[in-house]
Design goal:
- There is one protein chain.
- The chain is built from 34 helices and 37 strands.
- It is an alpha/beta fold.
- Helix 3 crosses helix 4, helix 15 crosses helix 16 and helix 21 packs across helix 22.
- The longest helix is centred in the first third of the chain and has 32 residues.
């Protein structure tokens, strides 16, 4: 018996039913504990978040919590059974009076049954799938006030007939034949005992299996079926009870299948020595990646802050300078030249030539049609780079001089204004062979940004796409330093490339092949840069204002690459990996990632965001992921959020069976990942297909460029059966400062310091969290979780940039005299040395009451809502000292918003009229409230009002940067009238 209980307890825990698993050993005393409508985890969550202390007597808090749970339909049968281990006190039960709940839930009727041995069958016959009934059971005892209240009505709590009669009285449902009360299942509304499944026992099976997965949408649908059928079939002759039974039977079959799959998966895991593997992983633990090495006196007269270094740097007593210091590799040129020679015959770049565009009926945009992939070896890549560099020299460019970079003059800068492609790197790396400086500009930005970058840097050569070349030639008069424009044929069809572009005037217009031919005819030896030479002038995306040019030197980029060797060495091998390049190379994350892969002799296959997957409006015959089968993929949070939402929508459209199995598999897989287990059966049946979406060879994925929600991170890890790690860094730190190890299973951390830098926290006594506690380097906990300090993240080391181009005041502000770069991000360090970013200093806004709220945390949480359109910018939170609570501007999906409006009686409206309708605003807020509670967003940070938005935020209207980051100031300005509506709603009283 004990073994059986242990196995059953494990199954329940596997399914996330912790409360039922905890009570399993008392089932013979409390036969209904299996059907607990509210899980302890849910109760605890609501007590802490929805009903924070002090909110009145404990019984009122508990009653409030149950109201929240009912409102969110966390109990699909709207029924609760309480055993002796129930977290609710007797006083809380007393607080759940019919009058109290009836005011919030007028559609419900209430039954109170006081019994210690209540027949499950009795409850099932009357309440299964009957939504308008709320049933509350608890054990009887002599001190129960309800026993006295029911005196005379309920003389024998064990009497089947008496209890049934009382239920019938409360619900108004009358059995067809009262003589059956003690003889067996009671037929109801025309369903006799001779029904094929045996009505009573079929309901028992349905209820048991329904309860095991009562959080799935399918279960909620089944539990609502009867109520909806009753409302929709009046006068139609359709028997709503039979409809409910059919839906319930389908649910029962699916749950039987689900239980069988869970048990089989567990057995296969045991047979494949899974417990041994799990034990090894558990005992090994997470390796130490960082530790404090000294104190930094950066807090004035206050205590010093711990300085954290990567374990290897701490052991060596110095920061890492290069991946190959023993070979004298200290510049990007030396690092790439090493790869060109060492991996000469290996594949380096994968290029898919565009053959044509395919416009399909019913779709707005055409799809790309690619030809067979063409490969360049490292030797071929090196040859092209040297020829391009020589071609630039022939065009009059010269190696950069020595001295102060801000005051240097001469023809030594080339600006890249092109989308990501293999030839982008040929041009950039070619320029570095001649000690030129590569400046970057996002191809999604307009020509005004190009003019600004060219003029600020006195740029001599500009690289762009063929389609942009003629327009830039016309603006040449606005860029006096510009002498040559070089165009690439990236994503141009053979027909588009047939004609040669020419330009009149002082600016030369040449194709890439023209420059290569010129270099081949005038070949010169490389001009090797020095470690302190500037390699890249990389402009930031401009989320906080005008883009700033960050000065990055050769030694800094090489040190960063060297630290990646340490961080990923356990999974990334020389010459055997594939990286998919699709992120904009004007972003430091893409530049740094590709540089690391080229330094290790691995392949980079090129695609773009719209051609990662095949299909209408994307590409044919294969998507980039299926074609290149990458082993590593990097993406910003928006990429992973889009993948998650897209997959979930596709699953939902596949029908209830597929939806049920996927959600079951996802639930089991998430639990397994946390426990260092694998799920062999579900990996084969479900997740193998998801893994194939990414090519089938993915070792791990990386998220950078912003905060990713824990929900998305956990989902991607489970769905694609590979780690999704977070990285944290800025353009000013060569893209990376901390990166989570693929061996680290934690959620929400952005990793430990890289071996080339060190991290500390600067106390911010004037800033405080939502509880009013200031951020100090001496803090030992963060909302109950242990930590080793909180404050602004400061970074120092060999891969930290050299400041901002021609912005001495801003450089002095962010880079102090001791070499610390002030990130502007508020973070904490865990006891294991992991950094967690809480928010940005500029995103910490003080409310009218003096409390601080973290805008970034609020945005990330609400962006998980299904109704939110992340592609159009997602959610933008507004808070200020003039209001008591934050409000939201929320980009909504049009279809979902119209459906939500119709459900709330709002039809015939669109645009601003629809969005500003009070009923629509309230409905959207209600949908987002559920996400806020699920994400455990503190009540202080939960929005009091929401304004839906349908007009997208884009880089063109200034609401997003080129990397799709929000520009809040612009959003606020565009929606000034909307904020005027929201602000009064955020005021108390």
């Amino acid at each position: 018996m004990n073994v059986a209980l242990l196995c059953l307890s494990w199954v329940l825990a596997e399914l996330g039913l912790g409360a039922a698993a905890a009570d399993v050993q008392s089932w013979w005393h409390w036969p209904w504990s299996l059907f607990a409508g509210f899980r302890k985890e849910d109760l605890q969550e609501v007590f802490e978040e929805a009903c924070p202390k002090p909110a009145g007597p404990v019984e009122e808090r508990h009653a409030d919590a149950l109201e929240v749970l009912l409102a969110e339909e966390r109990c699909p049968f709207v029924a609760a059974f309480f055993s002796s281990s129930s977290p609710l006190s007797q006083s809380a039960k007393l607080a759940l009076t019919e009058q109290r709940l009836a005011s919030s839930f007028p559609a419900l009727r209430y039954i109170r049954v006081e019994t210690e041995q209540m027949s499950i069958r009795t409850f099932l016959q009357w309440d299964i799938n009957y939504l308008p009934t709320y049933v509350l059971f608890w054990p009887s005892n002599s001190s129960s006030p309800w026993q006295r209240w029911q005196s005379g009505r309920h003389a024998n709590p064990y009497d089947y007939g008496d209890v049934s009669a009382w239920i019938a009285q409360a619900t108004g449902l009358v059995p067809q034949n009262s003589s059956h009360l003690s003889a067996g299942p009671v037929p109801v509304r025309g369903l006799s005992r001779s029904s094929p499944l045996g009505f009573g026992w079929a309901l028992v099976v349905i209820a048991v299996l329904h309860r095991l997965l009562n959080r799935t949408p399918l279960a909620r649908d089944a539990s609502k079926c009867l109520f909806e059928a009753q409302a929709g079939s009046e006068g139609s002759g359709t028997d709503p009870w039979r409809l409910a039974m059919a839906n319930g039977a389908l649910s029962a079959l699916l749950h039987v299948l689900g239980l069988v799959l869970v048990i089989l998966d567990f057995l296969i895991w045991i047979l494949t020595l899974g417990p041994v593997w799990m034990l090894q992983k558990t005992l090994a633990g997470v390796p130490e990646f960082a530790r404090p090495v000294r104190k930094a006196k950066i807090n004035g007269s206050g205590p010093g802050s711990d300085v954290w270094q990567a374990t290897q740097a701490a052991d060596d007593g110095k920061l890492l300078t290069s991946p190959h210091p023993e070979e004298g590799v200290f510049t990007v040129f030396q690092m790439l030249d090493r790869s060109f020679k060492r991996y000469a015959t290996s594949k380096a770049q994968g290029i898919r030539p565009l053959l044509s565009w395919k416009k399909e009926e019913g779709y707005r945009f055409p799809a790309k049609v690619f030809g067979p992939t063409q490969w360049r070896t490292y030797a071929e890549m090196g040859k092209l780079c040297k020829e391009f560099g020589a071609g630039l020299r022939a065009l009059g460019l010269e190696p950069q001089p020595e001295g102060d970079f801000d005051s240097m003059t001469g023809k030594f800068k080339i600006l890249m204004y092109e989308d990501t492609c293999a030839d982008w790197q040929i041009c950039a790396y070619g320029a570095l062979t001649q000690n030129l400086v590569v400046a970057t500009c996002y191809a999604t930005l307009g020509t005004d940004a190009v003019v600004h970058a060219v003029n600020e840097g006195a740029v001599t050569a500009l690289v762009c796409n063929r389609k942009a070349a003629e327009g830039l030639v016309k603006m040449a008069s606005e860029m006096p330093s510009l002498e040559v424009i070089i165009y690439l044929d990236n994503l141009c069809t053979p027909d588009e490339c047939k004609h040669r572009l020419t330009a009149a005037g002082s600016v030369k217009l040449l194709s890439l092949q023209d420059v290569l031919d010129l270099g081949k005819a005038n070949l010169v030896e490389p001009s090797p840069p020095k470690p302190e030479s500037v390699a890249v002038l990389m402009y930031t995306s401009g989320s906080t204002g005008t883009p700033k040019g960050v000065v990055l030197r050769h030694s800094q980029l090489v040190a960063f690459v060297g630290s990646c060797y340490i961080q990923f060495g356990a999974l990334i091998y020389e010459g055997g990996e594939m990286f998919i390049g699709y992120l904009p190379l004007a972003h430091i994350l893409a530049v740094a990632a590709e540089l690391y892969f080229y330094s290790t002799g691995n392949c980079v296959g090129y695609a773009d965001a719209k051609s990662l997957l095949a299909g209408p409006e994307r590409c044919y015959p294969l998507g980039g992921l299926q074609e290149f089968k990458p082993t590593l993929m990097a993406g910003v949070p928006k990429v992973w959020e889009t993948i998650k939402k897209g997959a979930e929508v596709k699953v939902e459209k596949s029908g209830p069976v597929v939806s049920f199995l996927f959600k079951l598999a996802m639930k089991v897989k998430k639990v397994a990942v946390r426990q260092n287990r694998y799920t062999p059966l579900f990996d084969l049946l479900v997740f193998k297909k998801f893994k194939s979406m990414l090519g089938g060879s993915m070792k791990f994925t990386l998220s950078g460029g912003g905060a990713i929600s824990g929900e998305v991170q956990e989902w991607v890890r489970a769905a694609f059966s590979c780690p999704l790690v977070q990285g944290y860094g800025l353009t000013e730190t060569c893209g990376g400062a901390t990166i989570q190890s693929p061996l680290d299973p934690s959620i929400g951390a952005v990793g430990t310091p890289l071996a080339s830098i060190e991290v500390t926290l600067h106390s911010e006594p004037e800033l405080s969290d939502s509880s009013g506690k200031p951020y100090l380097c001496t803090d030992e906990d963060h909302f109950g979780d242990p930590c080793r300090g909180r404050g602004e993240v400061w970074i120092k080391g060999l891969s930290v940039g050299s400041g901002y181009y021609k912005l001495p005041d801003k450089t002095a502000e962010d880079f102090d005299k001791d070499g610390w770069f002030h990130t502007g991000d508020i973070g904490l360090i865990t006891p294991a040395g992991q950094v967690k970013i809480i928010d940005r200093k500029k995103n910490l806004v003080k409310l009218k009451g003096g409390e601080y709220v973290a805008l970034e945390m609020i945005n990330v949480t609400y962006n998980n809502a299904d109704i939110i359109n992340a592609d159009a910018g997602g959610v933008c939170c507004f808070a200020s000292h003039e209001i008591d609570r934050p409000v939201l501007l929320a980009q909504c999906k049009r279809k979902e918003l119209l459906e939500l409006a119709a459900k709330n009686g709002v039809t015939g409206k669109d645009g601003e009229e629809l969005c500003r309708d009070p009923k629509v605003m309230a409905a959207v807020k209600a949908a987002l409230d559920v996400v806020a509670k699920a994400g455990k967003l503190p009540s202080l940070m939960q929005a009091t009002a929401v304004m839906p938005v349908l007009e997208p935020w884009t880089p063109d209207n200034g609401c997003l940067t080129a990397t799709s980051k929000l520009v809040p100031k612009t959003v606020y300005k565009v929606h000034e009238k909307d904020l005027d509506i929201l602000k009064p709603m955020a005021m108390k009283g």
